[in-house]
Amino acid sequence: xxxxxxxIGQRLRKxxxxxxxxxxxxxxxLSHLVTNPIGTTGMNMWELGExxxxxxxxxxxxxxxxxxxxxxxxxxxxxxxxDYFFPQTGTNEPGLLLDNSIxxxxxxxxxxxxxxHNLSHETLMLVRVPDDSMSGLLAKGDRALIDLHKKxxxxxxxxxxxxxxxxxxxxxxxxxxxxxxxxxxxxxxxPDMKLTAAELQKIQIIGRVVMIVTxx
Length: 216
Description:
By secondary structure, this protein is an alpha+beta fold.
């Protein structure tokens, strides 16, 4: 085994151990970031230093673990970006038929910033806003950071919902008569919808919008 293979293997294993992931979990998460997924055997061989990842695998591996691809590849000793994390670009949640092309990996977030806002990079997804139905708050092409674990509607709040494979950003408001109102900022073009609790349960709520990134 060469020193480079050993170094790469040790760094890959350390990154996985730091997150408490099993091989299977790491492989599943990586599968959302690569064109040609690797199996658990292949990942294990990388970590043991018995096989080197292909060159094109280091960038998604860096995104997966929130570390510089050059550090993972053993090209330098600088792990300065190790406390930055990219949101998920896919989800394995049962029944959530989300087109992964909707997700975005344009931004990384520092661990301390996420902790300050009680967020976990493992439950976040960044999506591009597909239209101007929330004009004044969000424009087409803006990005919304979604917390996939925040789906319960207890007060008026901003959520991402999935309708026929398309993401919509909408206000959802509980009413005194135990119904819920889904609204946009343009009620003339996108009228309010009033739903019963049972009807709301049938809506695929992706998660709560926790941050908005706008362009000027």
